[in-house]
User: What shape does this take?
Amino acid sequence: EVQLVESGGGLVQPGRSLRLSCTASGFTFGDYAMSWFRQAPGKGLEWVGFIRSKAYGGTTEYAASVKGRFTISRDDSKSIAYLQMNSLKTEDTAVYYCIGERDGVDYWGQGTLVTVSS
Amino acid sequence: EIVLTQSPATLSLSPGERATLSCRASQSVSSYLAWYQQKPGQAPRLLIYDASNRATGIPARFSGSGSGTDFTLTISSLEPEDFAVYYCQQRSNWPPEITFGQGTRLEIK
Assistant: This one.
């Protein structure tokens, strides 16, 4: 059974940092690009960024709204993807989803809530 | 940034009826257009990728069409479980970005 489990969310003050983890099982993690999307309360979906598989260079891309503040990485030996979030703003408050994607197939986690508030 | 505009914002239909949802891109996205369904409290689910390909396990009543800037998601005969919010999504290679439409809420009439 395919599973993606996000962890690390919670309440954080503006300007602080938080690291989310996405632990995968049930598929060949290293063959998949790993993306992060988010959804603010009651709002639509927003792309955060992704990391390509090693076969495609393992490079990253980010949305303009988080570029320079967020970093995505992966540990294929542990089947974990990370989202390091620095200099958090109140507008970063959202449910964060990790997604494994390859050739028209995608697997989603259930999301983890990040609340940025003083 | 490529902007996706979905219409209508809300669609009220009855089970058994046909639903037609539209997504228009501010510039051509070729066929790199996907459709997602999201129910309250759940993660989105991929329905259609590359404009017209059904994802694994998606019923045949869901179909996608279009290319360039105009796309359509059609649900041929609505089932009770189809009432949800639907998002279109585009992926561009340069600059590398992914954007979503604002969503269409499909509600029971």
Q: What stands out?
A: Residues 1 and 95 of chain B are 8 Å apart (CA to CA).
